[in-house]
Specification:
Blueprint lengths: L1 H20 L2 H8 L7 H24 L3 H7 L1 H25 L4 H24 L2 H4 L3 H11 L4 H8 L1 H14 L2 H4 L2 H22 L8 E11 L4 E7 L13 E5 L10 E7 L7 E6 L3 H4 L9 E8 L2 H6 L6 E7 L4 H6 L8 E7 L8 H7 L5 E7 L4 H5 L10 E6 L2 H13 L7 E3 L5
Parallel strand pairs: 7-8, 7-10, 8-9, 10-11
Antiparallel strand pairs: 1-2, 1-6, 2-5, 3-4, 3-6, 4-5
């Protein structure tokens, strides 16, 4: 119980720091120079300052800090990223409505606001799958637009956030009475510089750094008509920090339309030669082009990311593990299972088609282990089938690991909640951001 409280505190502190602690020095230092202004004008200026502080936080979070991923998980980072963006936009509009300016000051502020408004509207449709997945009409509309706006275009447009931040930076530098507040400008310029350096560090100079590697494609073969298995390896593989259940970001910098990184789960941890496997389903323009890759192609890999193994380690070592998964969502479990056979493991693995049930020979081998019980079939398992095969006392002494389609995850979250399973004993890692 003490460990669970610690986990919750980490998540609460994570949100509080970015929402309140980051803007606080800006507010404290600028307040000294706003004496004599009306309350409405001061409120508008505070709104703009907080909005910019959150924009800097958004840029930092967009670099996918691995230390934060291990602490709270990348889905939580992206969720905060999105909420901060919407909040920053709202405050930016309050700032515009409550202040008056002209010339270049007005032009830089207005242009930044236009970029930010358009970008967030676009991102809500193309990047906020956690929202879109809950509205079928929006989901269908998104699929139609994806035929025009490919993933690389979406990622390129997302970088317009940097332009909006730079315009706000220039906007502030042009305001004489703000620039005269020395303590504020020290914080403003200093944090802006630190954010820029952090961004450039991850985007420009990545070779030879821990957590990033230049590898070679060793093997590329088809497991089914829509699923491919990539084997990657190379001397730099030891620079990657990979744990069971992790995912990595993969790109091929020298191959057109494959230069933007995409997340894929490890199906195996690196062997003694440093080789590991990724199993990938053809779901879009990036994954569709993987079939053209030949052995020897250079790959950029960043990682690992994920909290499956950390989640297990944060709980009782004697707890049973129940894994409920579907389709390609099972891939992280194939690296997780052999690393956790000290636990009693129950796997429920389903797929739409028999040919989509991956690595069945490996599953059969695991069933020879006393601590592994596995069920796999075409089509979803009924609730009763799963519940009747869970270990004794599963409501209190069992960890539930959910992966796969969003509908499957949401179904089992609701069912387990009704069964009074503690939410701290349920873990999911959705690739829907």
């Amino acid at each position: 119980m003490q460990m669970l409280r610690k986990i919750q505190y980490k998540l609460v502190l994570f949100w509080l720091n970015f929402f309140f602690v980051v803007p606080l020095p800006f507010i404290q230092t600028i307040s000294t120079g706003l004496q004599g202004m009306s309350a409405n004008e001061m409120l508008a200026i505070y709104s703009g300052v907080i909005s910019y502080a959150w924009m800097l936080a958004i840029v930092y979070l967009s670099t996918k800090p691995r230390w934060l991923d291990r602490l709270v998980g990348l889905p939580s980072i992206y969720q905060l990223h999105g909420i901060l963006a919407i909040a920053a936009l709202g405050l930016a509009w309050l700032h515009k409505i409550g202040t008056h300016s002209g010339g270049l000051i007005k032009q830089t502020g207005d242009l930044s606001l236009i970029i930010l408004t358009g970008l967030i509207g676009y991102s809500l449709l193309f990047l906020a799958s956690w929202l879109i997945s809950r509205f079928s009409l929006l989901s269908k509309f998104k699929k139609i637009l994806e035929k025009i706006f490919k993933h690389e275009i979406t990622m390129l447009l997302h970088k317009l956030l940097l332009a909006a931040v730079i315009l706000v930076f220039i906007h502030v530098q042009l305001i004489d009475y703000i620039r005269s507040i020395t303590s504020f400008m020290i914080w403003f310029d200093g944090l802006s510089l630190l954010t820029a350096l952090s961004y450039l560090r991850t985007k420009v100079s990545w070779y030879g750094r821990k957590g990033q590697a230049e590898l070679k494609l060793i093997q590329n073969h088809s497991l089914s008509d829509r699923v491919r298995e990539l084997t990657l390896g190379g001397r730099q593989s030891q620079q990657l920090d990979l744990q069971a259940g992790d995912f990595v970001f993969l790109s091929f910098p020298r191959v057109p339309k494959l230069r933007e990184p995409h997340p894929f789960s490890l199906v195996s941890l690196p062997n003694q030669s440093g080789e590991f496997k990724l199993t990938i389903r053809d779901d879009g323009d990036f994954t569709n082009r993987l079939q053209v890759l030949r052995p020897g192609t250079t790959a950029k890999v960043t990682g690992g990311f994920g909290r499956y193994q950390a989640f297990i380690a944060e709980h009782d070592a004697t707890a049973s593990l129940v894994m409920i998964t579907g389709g390609i969502g099972a891939t992280p479990l194939f690296s997780l299972i052999p690393n956790n056979l000290s636990h009693q493991i129950y796997l429920f693995y389903s797929a739409h088609r028999q040919t989509d049930l991956l690595y069945q020979q490996q599953l059969i081998q695991w069933t020879q282990h006393a601590n592994f019980t596995g069920f796999w079939q075409q089509g979803r398992f009924s609730d009763d089938f799963v519940l009747n095969r869970l270990p004794h006392g599963w409501q209190n002494h069992t960890l539930f690991l959910l992966s796969g389609p969003v509908s499957l995850i949401h179904h089992w979250e609701k069912l387990l909640e009704k069964a009074k399973v503690d939410s701290n004993n349920i873990f999911k890692e959705e690739f829907n951001w």
